């Protein structure tokens, strides 16, 4: 699987969470009409005397209907409950970038290491792999002098990257660009983003998104307060959609920059 395919699959999951929110978040303003309720129960052969719960999704493109005996009501489908899907979509999109950058570094690391010493990115030279992994690569060569130990080295690099690096914040992603030896990284990424975008705008937006992600993951998205009650930070459908859409463009820009600079 290519880094790009993995990224697309992760972004698709983030978008799926948003779609679920749109389908099941209740937008209905009124209670169910008795005539509609009775007709529906008759079609479903549900008990005539039992109440039903109806939830209308966004723009009434979906309808959920439950028997009262399920033990749930419309409050379970309100924004303050289902906004967890929106929070999860933000987290999933940032995870998609993390995975993409890890995979891009792993994919190109061996290619870079086969260059002449002077042409290997200085930061990549400082990357350490375990003695055991080095031993395995040497043994592989001893068994077959014509073998190519690249996959073993790449696996060792992958293990260390996932253990020691998180590629989410601007500084962390810049570190990945140094591993790949890409100069003027942020300027190049900005040039591949939709519209006319300055590199500072890209860095600032990523900083905001990762900070929001950290609030969700590390603070349970609860407002910091000295009061006794727990209060969630709000998140809107638009905020979640904008975040996932921006991250999708950002990931594509990173891939384009890497493919152009690492050959």
Keyword list:
elongated; 4% strand; 263 residues; mainly alpha; single chain; two-stranded antiparallel ribbon
Report on this structure.
- The protein is mainly alpha-helical and 263 residues long.
- The protein has 10 helices and 2 strands.
- It has a two-stranded antiparallel sheet with strand order 1-2.
- α5 (131-143) packs antiparallel against α6 and α8 packs across α9.
- It is elongated, with a radius of gyration of 25 Å.
- 25% of the residues are buried.
Topology:
Blueprint: H1 3-24, H2 34-44, E1 52-56, E2 63-67, H3 79-113, H4 122-125, H5 131-143, H6 150-164, H7 170-179, H8 185-192, H9 199-219, H10 237-261
Antiparallel strand pairs: 1-2
Helix pairs in contact: 1-3, 1-10, 3-6, 3-7, 3-9, 3-10, 5-6, 8-9, 8-10
Structural class, by secondary structure, is: mainly alpha
Helical run tally? 10
- Mean pLDDT, nearest integer? 88
- For the termini, the CA-CA separation is 19 Å
Our estimate of the beta-strand percent is: under 5%
